[in-house]
Amino acid sequence: MPAPIRLRELIRTIRTARTQAEEREMIQKESAAIRSSFREEDNTYRCRNVAKLLYMHMLGYPAHFGQLECLKLIASQKFTDKRIGYLGAMLLLDERQDVHLLMTNCIKNDLNHSTQYVQGLALCTLGCMGSSEMCRDLAGEVEKLLKTSNSYLRKKAALCAVHVIRKVPELMEMFLPATKNLLSEKNHGVLHTSVVLLTEMCERSPDMLSHFRKLVPQLVRILKNLIMSGYSPEHDVSGISDPFLQVRILRLLRILGKGDDDSSEAMNDILAQVATNTETSKNVGNAILYETVLTIMDIKSESGLRVLAINILGRFLLNNDKNIRYVALTSLLKTVQTDHNAVQRHRSTIVDCLKDLDVSIKRRAMELSFALVNGNNIRGMMKELLYFLDSCDPEFKADCASGIFLAAEKYAPSKRWHIDTIMRVLTTAGSYVRDDCVPNLIQLITNSVEMHAYTVQRLYKALLDDISQQPFVQVSSWCIGEYGDLLVSGQCEEEDPIQVTEDEVLDVLEGLLASNLSSPVTRGYALTAVMKLSTRLSSVNRIKKVVSIYGSSIDVELQQRAVEYNALFKKYDHMRCALLERMPIMEKAAANGPTETVQTNGEAEPAGLEPKHPPTIIQPANQANDLLDLLGGNDVVPVISTAPAMKPASAGGELLDLLGGLSLSAPTPAPPIPMSQPPFLLDGLSSQPLFNDIATGIPPMTAYNKNGLKIDFTFERSNTNPNIAIITIHAANSTEAEMTNFVFQAAVPKTFQLQLLSPSSSIIPALNQGPVTQVIKVLNPQKQQLRMRIKLTYNHKGSPVQDLAEVNNFPPQSWQ
């Protein structure tokens, strides 16, 4: 059989191919030749054939049939064969193929080889694709090489140890003795890989983190030497001394200093030195400065140092590189809650980024701008953001409009400004706003009694110019129907009144009913507005005709409204004025539903102040865990209405899903509760305050922190009953998108009684712009340690999210 062509010739041949089909033909022909050679067990050219196969694999063609040949090359005694064999194993094998386990013995032999380069090949392969089984078998050899005096092997062994720890974290302690002298190593490669190994160990184990905190002074000394004298000129990049090692050390310092006062104090000076002495004209310097900023923000650094870090990010915003500006905006967004005033100094630069052509930068700048809004700058910031809303791409309008609504509701300097701002958003981006903006604005207008004439006049004038924005048209229709008499009478004092006749008002509403731009919902608003005007204007006959026309509409909703309104004119005309009178001022709590609900293990129901009979509770057959019996037995007199019974628990003691297995049948009433013990937490209240200020000494706690949702508990005591703990939850959202339909549910063991009041909102604003609060009342008559199981459900970025968690670390003061 003739000798196969060399790799160089194959590359040259493939490059001459003019089409993809021609290249495929060449590859298939060569693959067939290689297969034939493998079948004939040709040892002479196996190395050459595997090398060509790897090149084909890099081009994207199948090469799996060469896996066993790689193992044969690894078993060879020739270094050139081993080199190609190990390279092939790293490219063609991974832990999903069982073939890789056949390498374990070869790698073990090569780790003990007399030649350092063969040992290096074995270390590289194990560190690249070693499975957990291989790592367990070979960790001892890696640890042995980590202690060797050969720096070439030590640096490779350190990186291999990182892979072993990632695959089998319980083997971490095996490498602890070998790490003692790693940082005192003079060899640059060993020092660099040692820092990587220490970082991995600290990230994965709190015990290791505490153990290595004593190395902070040594790391500070190494970093100082790097800045002052450099390691060696060969590791400098663009005049910056060894930036890769600097970044690695800064990252390790950040992990070691987080949450530790002594370590943070030890590194404050060197961080200030790095921040002030690093050259910013090159991208290398910016990388070091960015890592320095992250370290300063994560550790317990001095306030002056944090201001310096934010000023560095402010300088990044002026950089021509888009990536650096994006990184700066993202970092400022993370720090704005803790260092608000320092970030405020760069407000003008941040607002300028709203005009950037890059959509990612614009989005980050928009989010940061909303985070900077407060009562002092609301007018200026809203002016800029409204200008941005006018000119931004459609993909930004929904988020921008939502952010303006939230900011205006929170910081509005006056009701007129608030109404004008919301109207401006609706006329600019009405098609992109959330569904709840229409009822919210209607409620705002209703409650601003002195602004009714001004608002209806402004909306009427805007409606003459544009009827394409449906939410705006709906609000305008509602206001014209409600306050049409004020519009016709021209009683506006805030601006020059306009002269409007009754016919002109009805013409506008009839135009909305007939317009192709109007949605069915908008037509419903317009028809109701026309009907309301029958009690406010004198043109009743015309209104009757308009209403009767739509009695035969093909839109069922519109038809039903018209038929009912016609009945009002005929059969119930004596009730029409009372039914259509002006809406009273709306209370926000009343508009959002009951002011108080009792949470019964995941099912909320309205809770009045009257005593309720508890449902009969069926005792579970096996009580393997207290938390399974969330409600307790019949011998306990409930203080709060509780949930229906749960099905019997299994003997395994597994925690039951909060809602799983609940009987949804109607509970059977039990005998009345003796009134000597108040059956409801709010019963028996006198003029005393509900919460005890003395209990403010109970420390708060974080009950849940995951996926950007953080839930903190604060505690108070009830003055009426010392056995009742008042827990207030604060749910904050640090992500970029708001969380909607948020529901918090809780359950406690049978010896406790629990009551949930209604939350302040079902929407958690993005970027920590305001928490949602909810009050929990827990009765603990036996003073037992409090345990709780919570269930969270919400929608985030269009997807439903559900999670369960246990809270067992309540402070003793909360239940003793």
From TrEMBL:
Q: Where is the GAE domain?
A: 696-811
Q: Which GO terms describe its cellular component?
A: AP-1 adaptor complex
Record's keyword annotation contains Membrane:
yes
Name the SUPFAM superfamilies on file.
ARM repeat, Clathrin adaptor appendage domain
Q: How does it sit in the membrane?
A: Peripheral membrane protein
Spell out the subcellular localization from the entry: Cytoplasmic vesicle membrane; Endomembrane system; Golgi apparatus
Q: Which InterPro entries match?
A: Adaptor_Complx_Large_Subunit, AP1_complex_gsu, ARM-like, ARM-type_fold, Clathrin/coatomer_adapt-like_N, Clathrin_a/b/g-adaptin_app_Ig, Clathrin_app_Ig-like_sf, GAE_dom
> Keyword annotations for this protein?
Cytoplasmic vesicle, Golgi apparatus, Membrane, Protein transport, Transport
Q: Which GO terms describe its biological process?
A: intracellular protein transport; vesicle-mediated transport
Pfam families of this UniProt entry? Adaptin_N, Alpha_adaptinC2
* Highest taxon, organism lineage: Eukaryota
> Which PANTHER family does the UniProt record give?
ADAPTIN, ALPHA/GAMMA/EPSILON (PTHR22780)
Instruction: Please state which protein family the record places this protein in.
Output: Belongs to the adaptor complexes large subunit family.
Annotated protein name in UniProt: AP-1 complex subunit gamma
The organism named in the record is: Scleropages formosus
